[in-house]
Amino acid sequence: MENIALVVGSTGITGSNLAQELISKGWVTYGLARNPNNDIPGLRTIKADLLDEQNLSIALENIAPTHVFFNTWMRNDTEEENIRINSSLVRNLLNVLSPKRSVQHVALVTGLKHYLGPFEAYAKKGTLPETPLREEQPRLEYPNFYYAQEDVVYEASKRDHFTWSIHRPHTVIGYAIGNLMNMGITLAVYATICKETGSKFIWPGSEAQWNGLSDVTDAKVLAKQLIWASTTEAAKNEAYNVTNGDIFRWKWLWQKIADHFNIEAEGFDKSIRPLENVLNGKEQVWKSIAERYELKEADLSKLSSAWHTDLDLGRPIEVMTDMSKSRKAGFAVFESTEDSFLNLFEKLRLEKIIP
Asked: Which residues contact 341 (CB under 8 A, 6 or more apart)?
């Protein structure tokens, strides 16, 4: 039977990289988004609103996917609203697809907030989780929209008899423009501004993150795990952490990034210095840089997501994840984190996003 993929959130870091990987493997691949783009050769785009079941029904009328990859969410003011809205996104889609009886597997991408708590809590309530983070660690006691999304998938799986997989990446590094959670591009933009203004590349995060061990997830590694779990019988109906497979300290990687841009790095110095404060008011600086080098995007807000980078780098503990579960099951993909960042920077130059 032909594999027909529906990539939900196909314009983001996870979704766009997954779509390219699926197409390269010969899958018929549909990309669903509120504002889809046609930048990926071979991707069949679908414009739809996940909060509107009628709109979804019309958009998907003639499409019967065998595999659904859910890679999107909507940020709201409270976690209660996050739960209501983001569980609805998943529920509405699976309800619309249910009568087709075509879906064999649903893969849901969440993240390490499963262990750390939602953004406003981020390891601040109760006991800090033990690291490395492992899939068998229990859910936290306070509200988390990841749990709500998982529960929707579990319920629909029982109803429609498809298999599922849950994927929990750390910070995702990869190419995508206009994404709300994009540390790689945010740091590239920050480094570019430092170079152009002669400023130091100042570490914005905590002492624990600066000195502690960490890991990240290359978007291409995540894409490969998503496909592996959806097509490997023994891997189905499980939750998996997913990272590059190496570990590092930010005080080492920060210098590597600074050296790449030929700028001066400055490490942790007694307190957190949020990047959001540093980049606030730099819109005109970036616009001038974009005009000088004829870059594609002159709007800083469409490239930088400093708030998300600050949340990741400001954590009060070192954060690394255990990959033993998927390794034992046969997933052996590895990527160097230094290469993840440096390859992204070269891609950004090639695409005229940074000079």
From this structure: 173, 184, 187, 253, 256, 257, 260
User: Among this protein's residues, is 240 annotated catalytic?
Assistant: no
Which residue in the list 113, 195, 220, 224 is annotated as catalytic? 113
Question: How many angstroms separate the CA atoms of 245 and 265, rounded?
Answer: 26
User: Cα dist. 118→85, 112, 115, 201, 213 in Å?
Assistant: 15, 9, 9, 28, 21
Which residues, 6 or more positions from 339, have their beta carbon under 8 angstroms from its beta carbon?
none
Does 230 score more than 70 pLDDT? yes
d(CA 152, CA 205): 35
Q: Which of 30, 115, 146, 240 is catalytic?
A: 146
Measured distance CA(39)–CA(122) in Å, rounded: 35
Question: Global pTM?
Answer: 0.95
User: 3-state class of 24 per DSSP?
Assistant: helix
Compute the chain's Rg from CA coordinates.
20
Is the confidence at residue 152, as pLDDT, over 70? yes
For the four alpha carbons of 43, 32, 183 and 39, in that order, the dihedral sign comes to positive
Write the pLDDT tens digit of every residue in 80-117.
999 999 999 999 999 999 999 999 999 999 999 999 88
Catalytic annotation on 113?
yes
